[in-house]
Amino acid sequence: MGFLLSKSMDANLKKQQEFMLHNSRLQMERQILMQNQMRERQMAMQIAWSREFLKYFGTFFAVATVGLTVGAVKRKKPALLAPIVPLGFILTYQMDSAYGTLIYRMRGEAESIMASEHDRLDLPLGTPTFDSIEKARRAKSSLASFLEK
C-alpha cells in the first residue's frame, strides 16, 4: 500500500515540477518579449526625437547660412563663413541619425565589441550576486534602524 502511495506521490511531484518548469518558461518568454517591446519603443522615441531636432536645427542652419553668406559678401570678410563648417558637420550627423544608416553602423560596432572586446563590458567588482545584494540590504536596514534610535 505504501509503495502505491509513494509511486502516486512521485508521479504527482513530477507533474508539478513539469508544470512549474513550463510556467517559468512562459514567464521568462513574456518578460523577454516585454523588455524587447520596451526597447523598441525607446528606440522609436529616440529616432523620432532626432527627426524632430533635425527640423529645428535644419531651419537654424539654413537661416544662419544665409545670414552668414550675406554678411560675408556685404562686408567682404570670408571669415564669416567659418561657422558654416562645424554647423554642417552637426547637420550631417543629425541627418544620419534621423534618416541614415548611423543606427546600423552603431549596432555593428556594438556587436563587434561584444564579440572581440567583451572584457570592456565587465562591471566593476563583477556581476552583482544575490549574496552581495542581500549584504547591502542588510547593511542599509541595520543603518536605518541604528539611526532611528
From TrEMBL:
List, alphabetically, the GO terms of the cellular component aspect. plasma membrane
The answer to keyword Membrane applying to this record is: yes
Superkingdom: Eukaryota
Instruction: List the keywords (alphabetical).
Output: Membrane, Receptor, Transmembrane, Transmembrane helix
Entries under InterPro entries matching the protein: Plg-R(KT)
Q: Kindly indicate whether the keyword Transferase belongs to this entry.
A: no
* UniProt GO BP: positive regulation of plasminogen activation
User: Matching Pfam families, A to Z?
Assistant: DUF2368 (PF10166)
Give TM regions. 53-73, 79-104
Q: What is this protein called?
A: Plasminogen receptor (KT) isoform X1
Its source organism is Lates calcarifer
Source gene?
A: PLGRKT
